[in-house]
C-alpha cells in the first residue's frame, strides 16, 4: 500500500510514481496507460487526483490523448524522461550528495556501484 507524504501534492507524488514506471518501460512506448478508474483503485485515490497526475505527465509530453481511446505513452517518452531526470539529479541532488560524502570522508574507492 502506497504511503503519501505532506511535502508535495498527492497528484505530483503519483505523477512521480508513474514517471518512474515509465522509466522502467511500464507501460512501453505506444502502449495505453491504465485507466483513471484502474489507477484510482490501485492507489486508493480520488479519480480527480489521478486525472491531475496524468495531466501533469501529458503536459511534460510523456502521454498523448487519443480521442475515444484514452492516454498512450508517446514515442521517445522514456528517453526524454531519462534526460530530464539525469539533469535534475546532476544539478540538484548530486551537489548535495557530493558535499555529504566529502563531510563524511567517503571517497570513490569506498563506494560500491553494484547492489549488495
TrEMBL record:
Superkingdom of origin: Bacteria
Pfam families, alphabetized: GntR
Keywords: DNA-binding, Transcription, Transcription regulation
Keyword Transcription on entry: yes
Matches recorded under InterPro entries: Tscrpt_reg_HTH_GntR, WH-like_DNA-bd_sf, WH_DNA-bd_sf
Domain HTH gntR-type: from-to ranges: 8-76
Molecular function terms, GO-annotated: DNA binding; DNA-binding transcription factor activity
Official protein name in the record: GntR family transcriptional regulator
Protein source organism: Rubrivivax rivuli
